[in-house]
Amino acid sequence: MPRAPVVSIxxxxxxxxxxxxPGDEHLYRELFEAIVDHRIPPGTPLPEDTLxxxxxxxxxxxRKALLRLGHERLVELRPSRxxxxxxxxxxxxxxxxxxxxxIEVPVVAAAVERAPDxxxxxxxxxxxxxxxxxxxxxxxxxxxxxxxxxxDLAAAAGNAVLSDFVGELISRTSLILAxxxxxxxxxxxxxxxxxxxxxxxxxDAAAAGELMAEHLAHIEQRLDxxxxxxxxxxxxxxxxxxxxPPARTASSGGRSGDARRRP
Length: 263
What we know:
Number of domains: 2
Strand order of the largest sheet: 1-3-2
CATH topology of the largest domain: Four Helix Bundle (Hemerythrin (Met), subunit A)
Largest sheet: 3 strands, antiparallel
Radius of gyration: 20 Å
Distance between the termini: 12 Å
CATH architecture of the largest domain: Up-down Bundle
CATH superfamily of the largest domain: GntR ligand-binding domain-like
Helix content: 55-70%
Low-confidence stretches: 1-21, 249-263
Number of strands: 3
CATH class of the largest domain: Mainly Alpha
Number of helices: 11
Strand content: under 5%
Structural class: mainly alpha
């Protein structure tokens, strides 16, 4: 009996690498991206039978993916009521931003000391996409690219543990923005990101930390703590996944190929 192929997982949970089945990984990725991109609003129920039918997989596989998302605080696992996309309270929103200030201000200081110039140039290049999304009014892309900027800085700081913490907090921030971002408000400021990056490039830890703290405070100030619920058809949302097989990573090619050759 061949062993299940090894597949990669998002950088937000690098500490949890282990062998997983392709159905579990595929569902996890689809749900993760749909949640952080605001295609599934906070509070939306995630019935195991509906997801299993939409993806053509068993409820056992669905449950494994939901447990992963529950561990990352993106999904709430409710006894006797099933899973639902997490719906952060106003108090939790404040706590998340407090945690981000505590973690991300030292992260930029570490980036000042350790980030290679080539990493900072790559981040600066990627900010062009964020600027384009801001000018085009693409809020979903802005939120995704804003999160990528903060993750990139954490990665450039060279501390994998801090990077994982930042990644989890950013994912939870996405839920908070989906619920509480004031109508018409920008989810994040490209100019503020650029200012933080330039302070890091100048190797000015004090300025970079101050700018990051101000940036996070500005995001929190854009919250109005008054979200609304929207119903989502999970079958329609994930209709595309039945039309293509789960992607396989290079590391899993050998084992999966052996499995296909079995009689």
